[in-house]
Amino acid sequence: MSTLIRSALLVKYSEIARTIGVDPERMIHHVGADRSCIVSPDLHVPEPWLAKVLDSTEQSSSCAAVGLLMAESWRLSDFGPISLALQHQPTLRHALGQLETYRHLLSESVFVHVEEVGETAIVRQQLITERPIPGRQPVELSVGALLCLMKSMLGGSWKPRSVHFSHSAPASLHVHHRLFGTRVEFGCDFDGIVVDRRDLDRPNPLGDVNLARYAREFLDQHPHGRQVSTASNVRRAVHMLLPRGQGSIDQVGQQLGMSSRTLQRRLEQEGLEFSSLVNEVRRGLACRFLGDIRYPVSQVAMLVGFAEVSTFSRWFSAQFGTPPTRWRAETNH
């Protein structure tokens, strides 16, 4: 089953498409998506629809920044049912926590994680998709929407320290500079936004504890407010931990706030095994990193949890029927 997103993203696309001379209905039909997704914002549709639409729009038009243009017009209300809860959180730190808690109401593919280093905080944003490479347009859109949330909490004139993308720089950075208003770096080891650490805890003047509580109660009763599966949470945790040399069941359990025994029991109730989920994530990450020629095979091996390149090569060959070096050469040919 495909990862789902809220169709408001495609409604937003249809608005921007018309401004750049693209017929959104024709484009939706071209990629095999349903027309209703550009009319009704509260449907939950496959994430690949958005990725295909953005990629096809870039290829068929002279606009290479359609994702950023969507982000530039993003408003807090575009977060849909969770927007009220976000607006009334006491701090940005709390808002980011709520965004992660109710992520399935907007996009099951977006994962946001905060790392605090000295006086700075790195707000990492990762797209978890079935594709080896998520694509530049969806990544830039999601980072831009994240900036919108930050500005809604910290003020419209606020600027981050820097913005980072793992993909290479496009030919023109005009829209990047206009939207982010700060240093934008490419070819990084993460996608996300670097802020002053104190910004995480700056009081939100619009924060209202009671309204935030009412919003959470509403969200918990939302038709799509189902409990996220343990398997989904494990996949997301492994995506984050594996490139750091972690990813054991104890480490994942700690990340999810439960013991390894409880984690194993919950996965068994869903008919899954922890090792199978780790292998699934490892396959996806291996293809993603090998698809980027900036990463030597030795580094890819480490990023997916292997201390030795030879061990990684044997595992990869067993999984994909070809050694990683040959897979890379054939894929990037």
From TrEMBL:
It comes from the Bacteria. Pfam families: Arabinose_bd, HTH_18. One of its GO terms (molecular function) is transcription cis-regulatory region binding. The keyword Transcription regulation applies. Keywords: DNA-binding, Transcription, Transcription regulation. InterPro entries: AraC-type_N, Homeodomain-like_sf, HTH_AraC. Residues 232-330 form the HTH araC/xylS-type domain. GO terms for cellular component: cytosol. PANTHER family: HTH-TYPE TRANSCRIPTIONAL REGULATOR GADX. This is HTH-type transcriptional regulator VirS. It comes from Cupriavidus yeoncheonensis. The lineage of its organism: Bacteria, Pseudomonadati, Pseudomonadota, Betaproteobacteria, Burkholderiales.
